[in-house]
Amino acid sequence: MRSRRPVAALLAAVAAATALVGCSSGSEEKRCSSDGVTVECAPDQRSKTPKLTGELLTGGTYDIARDRGQVVVVNFWGSWCAPCRAEADDLEATYQATRASGVTFLGINVQDSKDKAIAFEEGRVTYPSLFDPPSRLALNFDIPPNTTPATVVLDRDGRIAVVIRGAVTQDVLRPVVERIAAEQAASGSR
User: Could you tell me the domains of the chain?
Assistant: First the structure.
């Protein structure tokens, strides 16, 4: 007779994870519009700046505070993730096309070994990535990314403007980034 404990433990873990996801997407996300994949927040509905600090893949440290005044595009990725590999060229192309407008990009590598992550980035992207194997940095977002890949666009004040839960293409991402960059440049707010 087989033990039912492993099955019960698995069911308990799934229930706990589901409860955590439900709690983490509470009132902050409800203030914004969502189509199930993309969450977009109007300027007066944007949540606070997430705390993003840590070790960069290539060495050194990063703190989101250094990029205040710029639009920051944060992408959660892993070398093991096929959609992440598919979107890498589009992310880099969008970065190159928008960086002169005061836009910067930051990757957050999750659930990976450092060697695999560095090898993945080499020759693909030129923007920095934080190394976060336990995926803890995602917990700092009031509107959680919840998937890998996921892309979060922070406005010039560091607030969450858009969350895209899934792979992006340049055709989808670039207009979003340009719009967020232009709205605050036009209003003069920082």
Answer: 33-182 (3.40.30.10)
